[in-house]
Design goal:
The complex is a heterodimer of chains A (367) and B (458). By secondary structure, chain A is of the alpha+beta class. Helix content of chain A is 20%, strand content 23%. In chain A, β7 and β8 form a beta hairpin. In chain A, α1 runs antiparallel to α2. The longest helix of chain A has 17 residues. Chain B is an alpha+beta fold and 458 residues long. Chain B is built from eleven helices and 21 strands. In chain B, α4 links the parallel β9 and β10. In chain B, α1 runs parallel beside α6 and α8 runs antiparallel to α9. The chains are: A alpha+beta (367), B alpha+beta (458). At the A-B interface, β6, β7 and α1 of A face β18 of B.
Chain lengths: 367, 458
């Protein structure tokens, strides 16, 4: 149960005290200073035993307590101060489709929720919702939203764009029904529970999405030209100040870094603006993977190029079986290691070959 | 909760019952840990104690007062009955106690005889020759038992101590010192016959030496009681078990009590665990396969911040050979959700009540003895109330010998005039016996899912 390993990229001496550094160290053993070594996933790391759960050490150095530096016991508690120092990623493993989620390092509770289901055709349904921290009971809103959206699509013949829009409407109704009171972390001030949502259905030869807010859908595609053999492509549009600025011609990185870069302009819940989800459809190819994710992940890889490289670190070579649960878990673990400033939720499923494709070419992930 | 893996299951299992949620700033963690021994320890890969590994000492009060009310005859019968039920191969010795202690069997210079038909017959004859004379110096009896057991290191050691009187021929400090010297070396079940002995004195010995204490008001019942004590001792196949408690740096153990089958305060008995930082070991003595006991612990920790989770205690069972057999975790999670932090765990509430019940009985009887009827009425009324609430029928029956119950629910009682001395001592002696909480379907172990359960599935 080791934390996700990272490789270093050339740092060999502490920038603060000059002490030699362990390969990959992000903190100096001698003086404790941050080395500035970037986090790059090691393609070999963490995938040797996909059945082994990932545990996130909330520690500056693996195996030691972030508070008092004493060793961590087998149960994940500090052997000196007793504080919980290791927290596993929550994983829902449904074989070829899965989601994983974690509180991260900064938030005291996980307000993200995920859900996976299949349509009557057996097509994967992926849902991620991010509770808005500046609202009461956001964790309950996101949980109700993903449950309602998935329930709308699960087990029934897929109705295309209308169906994903209806799923988002059901999620909106569910989030709206969550009471505002009783959240000790939010005084009753007239605001209502709020959350974002992204729904994706991997139908034959296409992925159909609907989203409100800034949780995203991505298509991951085998790409020999990409650094890790996979490329990523965002297939949803954000309802955010940054997205609006980019649409108006701003540089994407600058727009996100701006003071209100992460402010969302649409959400679900009782005081949301009129519901107007982005509904989109994107053609898929056999071997593609469909991923939906909260900003707790994509904030650390905001561009398609960056996300493709990160995802490739946890994906097998194109054509090899993909274990969705293991990939989700490791992506979440990576985001925690990268800073974990927000809650993280990632759901993943293989694209379904289109009517014209040979079924034998379909990726059949290991159970 | 984790347990060690063994082919036949774990030799012990442990389960925590608690509300791990604390309000911001709160620093007291309460938990009940239920520990159960496997029904078949051999299948769990644990070495068990056989007859050849046991040593028993039977200590009989032979002071002059034993000559009245046929007590000496009954004590002799009881000691002979105990010898009769010893398994072949058990090492045993008989001690006669008055103002000093005498080894009356074996008498050939050995510390212990080994039970077989011949030795049992000879021991019976030695017991039959006992004559009541002299005073009572219980500390000297314990000293001799300790010296005898010291000659057979490594054996599972057990003694029965019978007296009919107070420790009159020794200073209280001498008895206390003798008890301390015996602590951990052998277990000792104590019995008082008649009504002229001191409940607190015998309870102190039995508690320190991990044994039971009881009154045998009717001498005629002694023999059956002795047989039962020997049988119970011989059933304890898992010797020298300790409870190990780790708690974090800066934490203070407010109390550690066995609360079932009876209340035994272990708090002050801990010793530093060899080689384990921040851990203390508490001797529990021998365990019978299949038995289970409950422990209530209260730890004051350094309060964490809201959202923090801390391991406030790790309870493990340590076998005679040092093997850690199981462990249960006691946790603390700080929340500002009052709905969570104000919940009282049912097991903790129940045993808090059972400890209060024992205290109320003892305080009530002490007040009655001192002539303070007002306090006695209040305390015994409270005891009646708790006994009724928790369904403690045995204690209720004994309480009703002392008081007329007008309303059990409110604890309204009247002291009975001229309550029987034996009944009073019986209630006092048995005040520490507890009942277990009935388990309705709603009862949940302490590790309830946090409310922020991330990622709701469909």
């Amino acid at each position: 149960m080791s934390p996700t390993a990272v490789t270093e990229t050339g740092t060999s001496a502490c920038p603060s005290c000059g002490e030699a550094l362990m390969p990959g160290a992000r903190f100096c053993e001698a003086c404790g200073a941050a080395t500035g070594a970037p986090l790059v996933p090691d393609p070999e790391a963490g995938l040797d035993d996909p059945t082994e759960p990932v545990e996130i050490a909330l520690a500056s150095r693996p195996g030691t307590c972030p508070r008092c530096d004493a060793p961590i016991d087998a149960d994940g508690y500090c052997t000196s101060c007793g504080h919980k120092a290791v927290e596993p990623v929550d994983v829902e493993d449904r074989g070829s489709l899965a989601y994983a989620t974690h509180r991260g390092r900064r938030h005291h509770r996980n307000e993200d929720s995920g859900a996976v289901a299949t349509t009557a055709e057996g097509w994967p349904v992926l849902v991620v919702s991010d509770g808005v921290s500046a609202s009461p009971n956001p964790h309950r809103a996101s949980a109700a939203a993903v449950t309602a959206a998935a329930a709308r699509l699960a087990g029934v013949p897929f109705g295309g764009a209308e169906a994903v829009a209806a799923a988002v409407a059901a999620a909106h109704a569910a989030a709206t029904a969550i009471p505002a009171g009783g959240d000790p972390h939010w005084p009753e001030d007239g605001t209502h529970p709020a959350c974002t949502i992204v729904v994706a259905v991997a139908a034959a030869g296409r992925v159909v999405t609907a989203n409100v807010g800034d949780a995203r859908g991505h298509l991951l595609r085998p790409d020999a030209a990409a650094p890790g053999g996979w490329s990523a492509c965002q297939i949803t549009s954000d309802d955010s100040v940054a997205a609006a600025a980019v649409a108006a011609g701003a540089d994407p990185a600058e727009a996100l870094a701006g003071p209100a870069g992460h402010a969302i302009t649409a959400w679900l819940g009782a005081d949301a603006p009129p519901l107007d989800p982005h509904v989109a459809e994107f053609p898929t190819e056999p071997g593609d993977l469909v991923m939906v994710d909260s900003d707790g992940l994509w904030n650390y890889a905001p561009t398609d190029a960056a996300l493709g490289e990160v995802a490739a670190g946890f994906l097998p070579a194109p054509g090899e079986p993909v274990r969705a649960a293991a990939v989700c878990e490791r992506l979440v673990a990576w985001a925690v290691e990268a800073g974990g400033a927000d809650n993280i939720c990632v759901a993943l499923a293989p694209a379904v070959p289109g009517a014209g494709a040979d079924p034998s070419e379909r990726e059949e992930p290991a159970p | 909760m984790t347990t060690t893996d063994a082919p036949g299951g774990a030799p012990f299992t442990a389960e925590t019952f608690q509300n791990q949620y604390l309000a911001a700033g709160a620093d007291v963690v309460d938990a009940v840990v239920t520990v159960a021994a496997a029904g078949d320890p051999a299948a769990a890969g644990v070495a068990t104690t056989g007859a050849a590994d046991r040593a028993e000492v039977v200590v009989i009060d032979c002071s002059g007062s034993m000559g009245s009310s046929r007590k000496m005859e009954a004590a002799k019968d009881a000691a002979q009955a105990a010898v009769d039920v010893l398994d072949d191969g058990v090492s045993f010795a008989i001690v006669a106690g008055d103002h000093e202690a005498k080894l009356i069997w074996p008498i050939d210079g050995r510390s212990f005889a080994v039970a077989d038909d011949d030795d049992r017959a000879s021991a019976r004859e030695a017991i039959a020759r006992l004559q009541p004379a002299g005073g009572t110096a219980i500390g000297t009896w314990l000293d001799l038992a300790r010296r005898l057991f010291a000659a057979v290191p490594g054996k599972a050691t057990h003694a029965i101590l019978l007296t009919d009187g107070r420790n009159e021929h020794q200073q209280p400090g001498e008895l206390a010192a003798a008890v301390e010297a015996c602590r951990g070396l052998f277990q000792c079940d104590c019995r008082g016959v008649g009504v002229d002995w001191e409940v607190e004195e015998l309870r102190g010995i039995a508690t320190a030496l991990l044994g039971t204490v009881d009154i045998v008001a009717d001498p005629g019942r002694l023999a059956a009681d002795f047989e039962a004590m020997i049988a119970s001792s011989q059933s304890r196949a898992l010797p020298h078990v300790s409870l190990r408690l780790w708690s974090p740096e800066g934490a203070v153990l407010d109390s550690l009590r066995q609360v079932s089958p009876e209340v035994v305060d272990l708090t002050a008995t801990g010793t530093p665990a060899p080689g384990v930082k921040l851990a203390r070991d508490f001797l529990l003595g021998g365990w019978t396969p299949g038995e289970s006991r409950d422990y209530h612990l209260r730890i004051t920790v350094r309060a964490g911040a809201v959202g923090d989770e801390m391991l406030a205690g790790r309870v493990s069972l340590v076998l005679a050979d040092g093997t850690v057999a199981t462990q249960a975790l006691v946790k603390a999670t700080w929340t500002d959700d009052r709905e969570l932090s104000t919940r009282m765990n049912r097991q903790v509430a129940h045993y808090t009540g059972q400890v209060e019940l024992a205290d109320a009985i003892q305080a009530g009887l002490a007040a009655a003895k001192a002539g303070d009827d007002k306090t006695a009425t209040v305390k015994l009324g409270r005891a009646v109330q708790i006994a009724a609430e928790s369904g403690h029928d045995d204690t209720m029956r004994l309480l009703k010998e002392m008081v007329e119950v007008d309303d059990a629910e409110s604890g309204t009682v009247r002291l009975k005039a001229g309550a029987d001395q034996a009944a009073q001592m019986t209630l006092d002696t048995r005040s520490t016996r507890t009942v277990r909480l009935g388990k309705p379907a709603a009862e949940q172990p302490g590790e309830a899912d946090p409310p922020e359960g991330a990622g709701s599935g469909t």
